[in-house]
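Dear H.,

Thanks for agreeing to be a second pair of eyes. The structure we're designing against is below in token form, covering all 179 positions.
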């Protein structure tokens, strides 16, 4: 192959690359994509009714649930959370904040953890009722939370988890009255 053939091949490759670049720039000039202000399709998730078609029974008051709760059983429930949370004193923040000493602690105020704006809007301390509501359905308690966990729907499981969190809290608030 002589140098003339090599020049023709190189020119063809360069012309093809130049053509692709020109078409790309022309497309950018003709089409101006804009980001939508809100999603076109809103997906509303409805809670499923329990099997049998009957509506779900309302939760018992938190005081009643905690009176029967077991911290040992709650520690077993907490194993579901260990991939994102640490429960040890002085332990690190993971994907979620360290949950040691959380009962009665101010909401969204753990040092070194970047809370979602949804949680930063919350005020006050973590009460037993707030913990129960949050653990039941995090996205329902704080819409827009980064916590992707669906929640603990079973009252007993949630009460056991709160009892465990209370057991690893230095000075937990008194339990609510079991009415």
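And this is the sequence the design step returned. I haven't edited it by hand at all.
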């Amino acid at each position: 192959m002589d140098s003339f053939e090599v020049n023709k091949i190189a020119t063809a490759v360069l012309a093809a690359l130049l053509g692709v670049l020109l078409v790309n720039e022309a497309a950018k000039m003709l089409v101006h994509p804009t980001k939508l202000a809100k999603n076109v399709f809103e997906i509303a998730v409805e809670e499923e009714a329990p099997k049998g078609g009957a509506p779900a029974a309302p939760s018992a008051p938190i005081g009643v649930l905690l009176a029967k709760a077991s911290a040992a059983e709650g520690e077993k429930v907490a194993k579901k959370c260990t991939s994102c949370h640490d429960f040890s004193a002085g332990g690190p923040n993971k994907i979620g904040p360290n949950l040691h000493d959380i009962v009665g602690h101010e909401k969204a105020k753990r040092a070194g953890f970047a809370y979602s704006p949804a949680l930063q809007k919350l005020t006050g301390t973590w009460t037993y009722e707030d913990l129960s509501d949050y653990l039941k359905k995090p996205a329902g308690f704080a819409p827009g939370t980064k916590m992707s966990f669906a929640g603990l729907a079973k009252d007993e499981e949630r009460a056991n988890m709160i009892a465990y969190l209370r057991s690893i809290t230095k000075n937990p608030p008194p339990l609510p009255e079991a009415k």
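Two observations from my side: The mean pLDDT is 88. The chain has seven helices and no strands.

Warmly,
E.
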